Amino acid sequence: MKNKAQTDPVEGMSRRKFLKSSGGVALFIGASGMLPHLISCKDSNALKKQLQKHPITAWVQITEDGEITIYNPAAEMGQGSMTSLPLVFAEEMDADWSKVKVEFSPQETDIYGSEGWAPGSKLMFTVGSRTTKSYYPVMRKAGAQARYVLLSSAAAHWNTPIEELRTEDSFVIHENSNRKISYGDLVPYLSMPETLPDLSESDFKDQKDFRLVGREIPRTEIPSKVDGSAQFAIDLRLPQMVYGVLERGKLNAATPTLTNEDEILAMEGVLKLVPFDYAIGVVAKTLEEALAAKKSLQIDWSEAQASGFNSQDIYPEYKQIADSRKKGDAIVELGDVGQAMKKAAKVYEVDFKNDYVYHAQMEPLNAVIQVAEDKKSADVWVGSQQGPDTKLGVPDLVGVPPEQVNVHLQYLGGGFGRRSMNDFVNECAILAKEMAPLPVKLIWTREDDVSYGTFRPLSLQRLKACTDAQGNISGFSHCVVGDGGRLVTSGARNDHYDIPNQLVEWRETSHGIRLKHWRSVGHGPNKFAIESMLDEIALDQSIDPVDLRRKLMAKSPRALATLEKAAEISGWGSPVAEGRAKGVAFVEHGSMGTGICEISVDRNTGNIKVHKFWIALDAGVVVQPDNVKAQMEGGIIMGMSSVLKEQITIVDGRVQQSNFHDYNLLRFQDVPESIETAIIPSTEIPEGVGETATPMVAGAIANAFLKLTGKRLRHLPFTPERVLEVLNA
């Protein structure tokens, strides 16, 4: 269960000091340019002793048999980071990929963090489709440093100028003397150069020489997930482990008053009750006993901010806020929208709406924490998207110094932004402190996660656009009404559309509902509104929707290329089967993509059927093409689920759904017969792909529906009831 990478994070060894032995070596290479260190590893016991003496942390380890272990600093939740990031390292190191193993790195920001999220501030954060982009230069530099150490060691061993050496497939080669040595055989001769060059982009491989990046490389973690050996936090069992659950009620921030404490404590297996400001915690010997006690709790709940809030009745109030002359917070101001509207030949105004959406990650939220008997250290096993604090808030909660809290990152059974919030870890820490030294596993049931969930916000988008006498879009105003800041405003920019006058503003509301980043965040609702608005203008102006976007993208060649490619592979403009139509939408979320779908509508039931989906994507350098296509497919299917099925409704502040019987998800029979992705070659830095496909779905479907029926869908999700209402209006 324990491995040295997880349980013995180490730092501080002197630059020149290393242990001579024939067992192997770890190259301690700091990604931000710190000098490398070497430590040999003859056997696990010797290594453990040395790690205790010399705390240091490694990016890569090499043994004499040539086995290479590369550490992955990012969470793995099915998006492929366990392969993509080590692959970039191995590319620059010139490692034989067949001999590479991958393990999670220790959760130590100083060594494994990236500045890709905030310059000057390192983070280990797997969110926002920024993992590959953020770590791409980090892993290239660290891999190149490792390669340099190998080259310089071989040069010293052979007494040969380093300039005469090259590397390939875990070998250092000297062609002049027809000699070569494997990385494994080089281990006994590894030594540190007197100085290490400050490697930069010019020292890295030319992309045309890539042997691994851009190739079809199987993902490293898939075999263990298939055979069941992959460990998720929910799989973990520790000796003497006890179980914790919380009753949080259904009204966020309501205060509980327990009225039958003695009765609960007398129940079989119950060990302790732990009060929270918003919940009652139960710790028991088994999960079944904990859940039974939870079910028997008698609690009086206070009122809270959300009391009286009804989600489906709030839109008229939001409309009044949008009607108000009082301006909100300006997110984008370009040109003068007001003047453009005054001079316009025609003005369009449309409201778009979207309901709350639940993350629905398949693995229930859970964590295991053990606080030592002396209360001076703690271990955490969790599937987390990490965060600004790699110790996940545990040190302060249990009263242990951060360096004495060891986080063992596990595979995540789905994240989608929910596991970048570590409330469940904090709850477990509070229970674990009470139960020390017993390890505590906290589990949220599905009902817990739905009824006390964190949701993509409900919002209203008021769009106003105007055209000049020539039919050009001269102004575009986007007013977002809702709670959550960037949770509702992201994706409202139109950087790739040449519209001279633009305004995006946010008008804040708050109802006491728990909110969180949901895959693609605000891009889903906002791109739906923008792309639908463009098609409504195109229809009114008698312009083909693709032609309209061609015109708007004239100054954005990369965006335009995705539009042209999507139109090509989908046969845009060619006849479709009777009863079907195609719709288009463009999205920029790190990478750029244009999606086109083909749909039909059952006018009796209101069911929309998506038959085919085509995507053209520019993601910069693509590290794993097959995985990118898989991400596009997954993003489209998740987008379809949210657009056609998923809806959280709230009455009197309480969520009405409780599990998958009343929170509907897309089913197998609803999946398109084909999803085709065309990747546009690029030499630009890699961009995220996890959140590009999802927000293009709503606009593409709504635009296909408009083409097919002449009717407009403006409220997400497009449930059969809403579709019939629109058709029959």
UniProtKB/TrEMBL annotation:
<feature type="transmembrane region" description="Helical">
    <location>
        <begin position="21"/>
        <end position="39"/>
    </location>
</feature>
<keyword id="KW-1133">Transmembrane helix</keyword>
<dbReference type="InterPro" id="IPR008274">
    <property type="entry name" value="AldOxase/xan_DH_MoCoBD1"/>
</dbReference>
<dbReference type="InterPro" id="IPR036856">
    <property type="entry name" value="Ald_Oxase/Xan_DH_a/b_sf"/>
</dbReference>
<keyword id="KW-0812">Transmembrane</keyword>
<dbReference type="InterPro" id="IPR012368">
    <property type="entry name" value="OxRdtase_Mopterin-bd_su_IorB"/>
</dbReference>
<dbReference type="InterPro" id="IPR052516">
    <property type="entry name" value="N-heterocyclic_Hydroxylase"/>
</dbReference>
<dbReference type="InterPro" id="IPR046867">
    <property type="entry name" value="AldOxase/xan_DH_MoCoBD2"/>
</dbReference>
<dbReference type="GO" id="GO:0016491">
    <property type="term" value="F:oxidoreductase activity"/>
</dbReference>
<dbReference type="Pfam" id="PF02738">
    <property type="entry name" value="MoCoBD_1"/>
</dbReference>
<dbReference type="InterPro" id="IPR000674">
    <property type="entry name" value="Ald_Oxase/Xan_DH_a/b"/>
</dbReference>
<protein>
    <submittedName>
        <fullName>Molybdopterin-dependent oxidoreductase</fullName>
    </submittedName>
</protein>
<dbReference type="InterPro" id="IPR037165">
    <property type="entry name" value="AldOxase/xan_DH_Mopterin-bd_sf"/>
</dbReference>
<dbReference type="Pfam" id="PF20256">
    <property type="entry name" value="MoCoBD_2"/>
</dbReference>
<dbReference type="InterPro" id="IPR006311">
    <property type="entry name" value="TAT_signal"/>
</dbReference>
<feature type="domain" description="Aldehyde oxidase/xanthine dehydrogenase a/b hammerhead">
    <location>
        <begin position="227"/>
        <end position="305"/>
    </location>
</feature>
<keyword id="KW-0472">Membrane</keyword>
